[in-house]
């Protein structure tokens, strides 16, 4: 039997709760039918991504799972979301194959070894990987011997975690014994449940020193991927389930984690967790999970689809493309992390303000999705029921690291006191959160949630699209120059002619040195250099978030709208907020522009059209006139719907309509407000309304190859601007009402001097047949060829 999507058999996820939900969403997103076999409390039961849910109960879930799999109703790819799923596959692989199933890849002996914590430690110790000091507790005599040998507190652990969870009904992974009497009492209680237990020392170190490695080992033992993360917090602190995670890129964790998986003989998916011991700095192995984990949603958001990798490998299909993943992403469990805060505060390790500052990132959530809300509702109901039926108070976990220094928030000075306080207290992170809250307050919760939902669509216009476009641009240029091209990696080419060669990556070429490019990124410094050279540029003031008064004074005397933007370190229009007309606008713009920087510029907004002059060693290669992005009404769609339709069009065009999409920014909010529109406004048929002032995110149709005259004085100003910065290849942005006249006559300015100008802007134009192949003269210069 096959799934509803043709030749692809359904995926059958064996247990996992939240983990099963993430796996199901991942595979449903690529068109796979998903069945979940799990306990009735699993949030996956309520997900629209799950085609069928089978409640296997709390008592003997493996037996119920195996019975269902043997029934012959559905045959599919078996994926383990829980230790029960791992054990079921490892002990019944041959029988499952005979029934037509496709169990996930794995070495069954190694799978069972990873479910046995002492065996896991033995394997690690055998290859020189640090493990906690541990002792088995087969009888009371061993407990008494342990009391004499180990210091307290110590950690009582089950040999097999899934049996512990099933028989105790506890969400806790371990029990911390603070005294000999507590150890005796807990050992007696747990052995009465036929649970094998052992005891380990407490690994000293901060609570955020728990780090993990994920790999997927093929039949030769080589890993198809490498991923690392850390727990920022967990509940209970030091020994619990992670409540706040962050993706990292840690070569040491990756090396030790892979070494263990290879030594243990693991095949397929493997996750190894360590804690860094504060006493000697070594990574100490905590556990190994040969399955998906609660962090799967974070891994998926970072760019690695472990579920699809496992599914394809089980069917002997090529795995999906495995690119590098995003570092610095966060996964937050709000409810459990709030509970964790209470214990961290009690132990003196975290203040409420410190907790808030740590959350000032874009967050991913274990269950919450606007397009699939019911699992979150189901989880809240389950947690509410459990809150009223706690078995006993938890034994407080010991502090394993130093307390955090507490700092308070500063007072607010603006009208919106809540967001201002947040921005002041949290620095850049606080301003980032304030900017997000500002958009929600400006547009309403609905558009904000729909924007989050649209991020999946936005991600489809990926770096691969840019790679392919630039590979075509440079390959065509090489052909016209009589050169060859070799692709070194996506977007990175080596171009050769005879004994000459050069390398290019997208628009980055080997013409200008890194120091000069850094100068070009410092907009305040560029304006100073332009002033020294007598080049017209915007009147401006440099300022910073701690003291907005210089910007307030500038705005009061500007006599028109202003632009707030980062003073250095960004490009591509990031953080640029035009249309600032009031002090309230200025405050909002500060939050949005200063999310990643502490220096800002405010300048008078230019009047006229934006022209990009591309110069190479003073020679004008091309001119593009860019219009701001806009939408055209159809008489029934709202502006928000028109923006969504335009984004879908660009995604389907795979870069031909533009390399960026229309997100919801403060520029959008202020532009619509200035025109008397809102996101829920319905435009008359044929009415064209600009939705931004900035041109960076416009469509190809908004760019025109300019063939009309350019005033000699304007060209000379552009040349002097490039020379002042020291650039050979420069994109000079001119704002003027008439480029055929000197800037002094029109009040025009040079607003930007770009060191790595986007060459794609000159190809993605309204009339591609008239586009100037600017990569050709650039390549000629790179290869030292004469212009032909």
Q: How is this structure best summarized?
A:
With 788 residues, the chain is an alpha+beta fold. The protein has 26 helices and 30 strands.
Verbal overview:
- By secondary structure, this protein is α+β, with helices and mostly antiparallel strands.
- It is 38% helix and 20% strand.
- The model is unreliable at 1-6 and 388-416 (pLDDT under 50).
- The chain is built from 26 helices and 30 strands.
- Helix 3 (83-98) packs antiparallel against helix 4, helix 15 crosses helix 21 (583-593) and helix 16 runs parallel beside helix 22.
- The strands form 7 sheets. The protein has a 7-stranded mixed β-sheet with strand order 14-13-10-11-12-15-16, sandwiched between helices. The protein has a 5-stranded parallel β-sheet with strand order 3-2-1-4-5, sandwiched between helices. The chain has a 5-stranded antiparallel β-sheet with strand order 28-25-24-29-30.
- It starts with 10 loop residues before the first strand and ends in a 6-residue tail after the last helix.
- The protein is elongated and about 95 Å long.
- The longest helix has 27 residues, at 417-443.
Q: What are the low-pLDDT stretches, counting only 5+ consecutive residues below 50?
A: 1-6, 388-416
Strand content: 15-25%
Number of helices: 26
The N- and C-terminal alpha carbons lie at a distance of 64 Å
Radius of gyration: 30 Å
Using the alpha-carbon principal axes, give the shape: elongated
Question: Which structural class do the helices and strands define?
Answer: alpha+beta
> Helix fraction?
25-40%
Total DSSP E strands: 30
| Major pleated sheet | 7 strands, mixed
> Kindly state the mean pLDDT as a whole number?
87
Oligomeric grouping of the chains: single chain
Within the largest sheet, what's the order of strands? 14-13-10-11-12-15-16
């Amino acid at each position: 039997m096959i799934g509803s999507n043709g030749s692809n058999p359904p995926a059958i996820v064996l247990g996992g709760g939240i983990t099963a939900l993430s796996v199901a969403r991942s595979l449903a997103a690529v068109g796979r039918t998903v069945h979940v076999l799990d306990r009735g409390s699993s949030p996956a039961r309520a997900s629209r991504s799950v085609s069928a849910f089978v409640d296997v109960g709390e008592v003997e879930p493996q037996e119920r799972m195996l019975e269902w799999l043997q029934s012959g109703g559905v045959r599919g790819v078996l994926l383990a979301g829980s230790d029960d799923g791992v054990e079921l596959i490892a002990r019944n692989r041959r029988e499952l194959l005979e029934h037509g199933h496709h169990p996930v890849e794995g070495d069954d002996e190694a799978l069972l070894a990873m479910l046995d914590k002492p065996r896991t430690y033995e394997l690690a110790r055998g290859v020189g990987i640090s493990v906690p000091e541990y002792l088995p507790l087969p009888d009371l005599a061993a407990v008494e011997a342990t009391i004499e040998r180990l210091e307290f507190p110590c950690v009582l652990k089950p040999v097999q975690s899934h049996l512990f969870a099933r028989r105790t009904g506890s969400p806790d992974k371990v029990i911390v014994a603070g005294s000999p009497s507590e150890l005796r009492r807990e050992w007696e209680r747990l052995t009465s449940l036929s649970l094998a237990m052992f005891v380990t020392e407490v690994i000293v170190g901060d609570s955020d020193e728990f780090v993990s490695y994920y790999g997927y080992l093929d039949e030769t033992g080589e890993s198809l991927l490498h991923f690392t993360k850390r727990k920022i917090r967990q509940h209970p602190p030091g020994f619990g389930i992670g409540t706040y995670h962050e993706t990292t890129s840690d070569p040491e964790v990756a090396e030790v984690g892979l070494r263990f998986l290879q030594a243990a003989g693991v095949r397929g998916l493997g996750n190894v967790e360590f804690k860094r011991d504060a006493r000697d700095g070594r990574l100490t192995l905590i556990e190994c999970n040969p399955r998906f984990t609660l962090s799967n949603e974070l891994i998926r958001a970072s760019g690695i689809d472990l579920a699809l990798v496992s599914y394809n490998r089980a069917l002997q299909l090529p795995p999906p493309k495995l690119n590098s993943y995003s570092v610095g992403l966060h996964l937050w469990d709000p409810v459990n992390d709030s509970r964790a805060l209470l214990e961290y505060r009690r132990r003196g390790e975290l203040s409420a303000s410190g907790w808030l500052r740590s959350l000032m990132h874009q967050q991913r959530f274990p269950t919450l999705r606007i397009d699939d809300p019911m699992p979150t509702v189901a989880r809240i109901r389950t947690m509410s029921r459990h809150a009223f039926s706690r078995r006993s108070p938890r034994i407080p976990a010991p502090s394993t690291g130093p307390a955090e220094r507490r700092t308070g928030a500063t007072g607010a000075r603006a009208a919106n006191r809540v967001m201002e306080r947040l921005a002041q207290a949290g620095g850049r992170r606080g301003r980032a959160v304030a900017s997000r809250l500002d958009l929600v307050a400006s547009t309403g919760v609905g558009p904000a949630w729909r924007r989050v939902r649209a991020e999946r669509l936005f991600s489809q216009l990926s770096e691969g699209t840019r790679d392919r476009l630039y590979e075509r641009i440079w390959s065509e240029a090489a052909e016209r120059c009589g050169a060859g091209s070799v692709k070194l990696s996506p977007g990175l080419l080596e171009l050769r002619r005879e004994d000459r060669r050069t390398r290019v990556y997208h628009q980055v070429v080997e013409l200008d040195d890194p120091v000069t490019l850094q100068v070009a990124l410092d907009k305040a410094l560029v304006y100073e250099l332009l002033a020294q050279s007598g080049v017209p540029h915007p009147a401006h003031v440099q300022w910073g978030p701690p003291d907005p008064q210089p910007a307030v004074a500038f705005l009061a005397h500007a006599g028109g709208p202003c632009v707030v933007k980062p003073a250095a370190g960004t490009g591509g229009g990031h953080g640029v907020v035009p249309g600032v007309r009031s002090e309230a606008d200025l405050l909002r713009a500060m939050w949005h522009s200063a999310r990643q920087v502490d220096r800002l510029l405010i300048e008078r907004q230019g009047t006229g059209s934006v022209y990009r002059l591309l110069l190479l060693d003073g020679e004008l290669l091309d001119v593009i006139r860019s219009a701001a992005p806009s939408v055209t009404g159809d008489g029934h769609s709202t502006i928000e719907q028109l923006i969504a339709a335009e984004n879908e069009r660009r995604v389907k065009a795979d870069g031909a309509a533009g390399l960026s999409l229309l997100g919801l920014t403060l520029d959008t909010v202020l532009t619509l407000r200035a025109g008397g529109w809102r996101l829920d406004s319905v435009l008359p048929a044929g009415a064209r309304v600009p939705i931004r002032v900035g041109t960076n995110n416009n469509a190809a149709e908004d760019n025109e190859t300019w063939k009309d005259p350019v005033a000699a004085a304007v060209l000379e100003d552009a040349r002097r601007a490039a020379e002042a910065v020291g650039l050979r290849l420069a994109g000079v942005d001119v704002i003027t009402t008439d480029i055929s006249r000197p800037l002094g006559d029109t009040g025009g300015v040079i607003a930007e001097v770009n060191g790595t100008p986007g060459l794609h802007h000159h190809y993605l134009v309204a009339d591609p047949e008239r586009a100037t192949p600017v990569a050709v003269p650039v390549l000629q210069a790179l290869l030292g060829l004469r212009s032909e």
